[in-house]
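Quick question: what would this complex look like in 3D?
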Amino acid sequence: MEFLTSVGFLTGLSIVLALLLVFANRKLSVYEDPRIAQVQDMLPGANCGACGVPGCAAFSEELVAGKALPSGCSVGGPETAEAIASFLGIDAGSAERKIARLLCAGGCDVAGDIVDYAGFSSCRAAATVAGGSKACTWGCLGLADCEVACDFDAIHMGSTGLPVVDADKCTACGDCVDICPKNLFELHSENQKLLVQCKSLLAGDDATDLCQVACTGCGICAADAPAGLIEMKNNLAIVDKNNFFDQTEIATLRCPTGAIIWLDGQQFPKEQRSAKLQKI
Amino acid sequence: MNVLNKTLEIRTSPHLKSAVSTDQIMMHVVIALVPTTLFAIYAFGLAALLILSVTTFTAILTEHIYCRLNNKETTITDWSAAITGLLLGLTLPPALPLWMAALGSVASIALVKLLFGGLGYNIFNPALGGRAILQAAFPVAITTWHPAFLADRFSSIPSSSFAWPFTTGTYDAVAGATPLGNMKFNQVSTDVTDMAMGLTSGSVGETSAVLILLGGAYLVARNMMNWKIPVVIFITVAILSGIVNFFNPNTPTPMFMLLSGGMMLGAVFMATDMVSSPVTDRGIIAYSVIIGIMVTVIRLWGGLPEGMMYAVLMGNAVSPLLNRSLKSRVYGTGKKGGAK
Amino acid sequence: MFNFLSHGNKTFDRGVHPGDFKEQTRTLPIERMPLVDEYILPLSQHLGGPSKAVVSVGEKVIRGQLIAEPAGFVSAALHASVTGTVIAIEPRPHPSGRFVESIVIKRDPYSAQRLFDEHATDWKKMEPAELLRAIQQGGFVGLGGAAFPTHVKLSVPPGKKVDFFMINAAECEPYLTSDHRVMLEQPEAIFLGIRICMKILGAKRAYLGAEINKLDALAQLQSQIPADLPCEIVPLETKYPQGAEKMLTEAVLKREIPSGKLPIDIQVVVNNVGTVAAIGDLFRYNQPVIERVVTMTGPGIQNPRNLLIPIGTKLTEVIEFCGGMKEDVRQILFGGPMMGNAVRSTDVPITKGTSGVVFFTEDEMVSTKEYPCIRCMRCVDACPVYLNPTQLGALARAGHYDDMMDLNIMDCMECGSCSYACPSNIPLVQSFRVGKALLREKMARERAEG
């Protein structure tokens, strides 16, 4: 008898609970466009935020709602954008591929330290202490915060203590731009070939005293390039980022320090760098 | 102009430091344990000396080997392994086979401490964790007590100490019941003064309440121990057992509760382990109350005569939760913050 | 006269006792630093936007003449500290480690160095708004070290009122004695400054709080308070960071400044005693901020001194005047050792915020051997704003900056008490600075994106 009571009670209880669940499922369900989940599956899932919204789930909602274009995801690349565009029957949009470039060429071989830094090994931490140990206060501290921040294994510290961006792996997510305490990273279009690898505001010998490959603000590149392409500002050569057509390697040829370079895909390929150094 | 011997150095502020370092804190804990240790050796003779040496040495060796295997600088210089070994030894019965003691020591260091990431990362107190493992593995051996103050304690060693590994050995002396065991199973109370002075049977280092408190006072005076933890535990236990004793005089008195078994050693040296206790003021109080309640409940209504070990481990387990749920008031917030 | 000593000294909860190390300079009277050939005046010596130069290269300037005007409300004016010629306006090394746009003046060796338009101002006839404008034009910033523009602090926003004016003379930083000497040597300037500030603020009462290790200065001020000035001298316990605004207010008034708020939200304005004395000088001589008292001290300097140094004097020259450094100097700190910054070279100028320069040799440099956090809670007991540095430190190490926000990291004032107390030498403050900077940048980005 006792046995039957307990079996009966448990059965009754489970039926009541099951009914409660059925009721909850009916009443409390929220309709979600099934395409959102499918689009999210097509996205890379890196949740990097490069598209401007927090995470891939939110981006898929915007895509389905028509508030964003598939090309907004720089990580997935053109194939992903195409696939999503054809799935949703919309235009993929066009976005030129961007790559993170380091605006500093002052590795430990050409730019020295002025003091010893004692503390934990992070650019962000070192920058809080008198701006770090490097003589050039604009330059790369070389303590690899960007290498740690990069989710795509695209940044590795090179032999001279500068981060080398693997142009093929870089997705232009912008994490390195945000983490660098010296603001040395910029996202450039892959069509942008002229690059000034320096942010020092000093002129002439003052600049080269701190770093052999600094931009001295001499203005030769601006004079050699087509008019208006390169502008001199605060002792720095600034290249027009919207004018790919006028770009020419001639602008780099007479640079006394090699601060301005002609890029072919990869920044800091070994040969190019050593050639420049021999010139100095 | 001046020429300096070396280039300047840049560091983050502050550029001054208090004089105390972590290894010094650890060293002072060892110093605080010295009176208890010496008394243990006096009370149990060579058996205690052996078991304490084995646990301490094994703990240090385990840590050293682990660091070597991982190609890290050895961490035995921070004294923490020595503390764990010593504390484990003090919680064990004097005549426990030495191989079991060594095994417990390895378990303490390797499983409870290093596996969690080493000093500062362990969730449980390593010594108590190791003892819990021993208790689970060898329930009989770890509750077989050896009488204190035997006449031949400095000339002979209990034969069980040298039992071969994986054997329990034979116990020669008639097992002396601990005050707690006597109370639980025989309803016989023990003189409170005897317990305070440590003239009873029990684990190697649990017996003398006075010396343990002396060591605790030394640490408190040096600001190396949170006095609130033992005090709150004692108060909780005293109040709870006082209430129960008032309604049922057959249960132990608050004084008996405080002075018997591992209460003193546990409250003063185990529960106060900084790593495994909470870090907020309110968390510390809650943690101590939980330990006090647990130990009283286990002792009065549980199947075991002693509950200190499980009570402290329980407290350790809830510490992270307490840290999160019982945050301290931040300056300028709440009632006093004068948010008008 | 000493009746205030019989009461227990006021103080705040928690904090640390680093020892004061002030013996080297506390009895040395303020000396005037001789003029040198070249002065470097950075356009950014204060918190807020950099000033805008109003002189050009080649121009002749007179001591006390305006050479850069404030760019916006939270900014400060800058004056020539010497009569001479502007020889350059270019980036020069700054104590912060950066290169900062600076006006470089070469001294005219034949000038008498008389002050530009020296006269006493009848402040009694001026309206509070006029007084405030005079302070803004005088280039005033907090001379205690933070260098926040003084006129911003003294401006009472509409709808707010000020009951108490607090003069911060705690000087809780070890080694430094500049405020101590100012109190001993310039009581009239201080009292005049207090009157003017109180008039601007409409405050009913003033409190001057100083640590009890400056007993002689306290006693002297107490004996000289004018009968009609409602100012109270409050002796405080010698404890760090007694001079933090929040701590000083708590010690004197027993009131906490709400989290994320300013003293003015509880009707209090706090100003440093050196600033107040300089305000007095502004109305006595029409002298803007062109010089300040700096303590040159520490075991690494040959002759420690309290010096009155024109702003812009290069550290190298000051060191030379003090007999040079000892050879084993390893660290030079601008400000005290608790919150001061190490500088990278001696080529930097003395700025308005430089309250002292401390020279450390290898012997004073503490061990950096790091142990794991053992959660001893010494940092918790040290934090004057009741944060939990051990948990914050763990979060910072793991990079969980958002979680640090929930533990009120933004209330951290980077006073360094936690790092001081930590037996494991964990660089807590440094990791908090990193975390706070990243969080601030993130918030700014989110604001920009809407």
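Answer marked as accepted. Residues 98-279 of chain A form one domain.
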